[in-house]
Amino acid sequence: MKENNIFDEEHVYQVLEEHVEDEWKSFNEEILRPYKVPRPLLDRLMYLNCATDVFYKGRTDGYTIVNEIIQDKIAAVLIHPILI
To answer: Which of 41, 56, 72, 75 could join 79 in a cystine, given CB atoms 3.0 to 4.6 angstroms apart?
Structure first.
């Protein structure tokens, strides 16, 4: 905000969300290309990226401040998983 002399917080969040969306598109395109790197390793990187997106989605820090949304998501995966 200080670098670009932008003091409208809503505008800053909008620009950051656009950057994140663009990077997700780039990431998804790259992960689908054939590589010499083993697919299981690429899958782990994708899962880590997805988890980071879940924890930091929106304007809350779900990692350091565990809010109800994150608690519900963790419970859905670990406590009440869907049986296949």
So the answer is: 75
Alpha-carbon distance 16 to 47, whole Å? 22
Distance CA 50, CA 32 (A): 15
* Contact by Cβ (8 Å): 38, 30: no
Task: For 9-77, give the secondary structure using H, E and C.
Answer: HHHHHHHHHHHHHHHHHHHHHHHCCCCCCCHHHHHHHHHHHHHHHHHCCCCCCCCCCCCHHHHHHHHHH
- pTM equals 0.55
**pLDDT the model gives residue 61:** 62
Q: Is the Cβ–Cβ distance between 54 and 73 less than 8 Å?
A: yes
pLDDT score of 31:
83
Query: 39, 44, 63: which is closest to 53 by C-alpha?
Result: 63
